[in-house]
Amino acid sequence: MIEFIQNHHQLLIWLSAASVVSLIISMIAIPWILIRLPSDYFVYKKRKTKKIFIRHLFVRSIFLVLKNILGFMLIVSGIMMLFIPGQGILTIIIGIILTDFPYKYRIERWIITRPRILSTLNQLRMKAKKQPFRTKENSAALQRENVKD
User: Fold this and answer.
1) pLDDT on residue 69
2) What are the tens digits of pLDDT across the range 55-79?
3) Is the separation of the CB atoms in 98 and 107 below 8 Å?
4) Do 117 and 42 touch, CB atoms closer than 8 A?
5) CB neighbours of 68 closer than 8 A, spacing ≥ 6?
6) Is the pTM of this model over 0.85?
7) Which of 35, 85, 91, 118 counts the highest number of beta carbons within 10 A?
């Protein structure tokens, strides 16, 4: 082990620096993105599609490719952050939100409906004075509570 460290000293320094940089970036960017998502983003069975207002096909294609590359990089970084300092789960969620693939929305909804994840994200949104994320399940519960009042 000591021999590995001595032989790969430079690599370990770069990995440590990358870990610190990714931690700082994730601590800033991830909450910023999650706060700007609408509170009903996870409510609907099918995602409401938003049109990209880039008319030129080539420019729109480049935009989508770059967005998917960024999303994929965030997913990979999030997986790495599960083992190094950083907000791994949140980074993976943001990466999934950015990428386009079949059944993406179903996966997003499944992840977000895990009670601990939803609770953590909603605490973050409450600190920013934003409404908590609603899901199909908790929207139904909120409607029942409103009917009782």
Assistant:
1) 93
2) 778 888 888 899 899 889 888 888 8
3) no
4) no
5) 98, 99, 100
6) no
7) 91
Q: Closest Cα partner for 135 from 122, 146, 148?
A: 122
- The residues, any chain, with a CB within 8 Å of residue 54's CB and separated by 6 or more, are 60, 63
Exposure string of 109-145, with b = 16+ CB inside 10 Å and e = fewer, is beebeeeeebeebbebbeeeebebbbbeebeeeeeee
pLDDT of res. 139: 61
The span from the CA of 11 to the CA of 20, in Å, is 14
Tell me the C-alpha distance between 77 and 92, whole Å.
8
Which of 64, 116, 68, 69 has the alpha carbon at shortest distance from 90?
Answer: 116
Element at 7 (helix H, strand E): helix 2-7
Element (H, E) at 111: helix 104-112
- Distance set, CA 4 to CA 11, 62, 71 (Å): 11, 42, 33
Query: Do 78 and 92 touch, CB atoms closer than 8 A?
Result: yes
Residue 103 backbone class (left: φ over 0; alpha: ψ -120 to 50; beta: rest) = left
pLDDT by residue (tens digit) across 6-54? Answer: 787 887 788 777 777 777 877 787 788 888 888 888 787 776 666 666 6
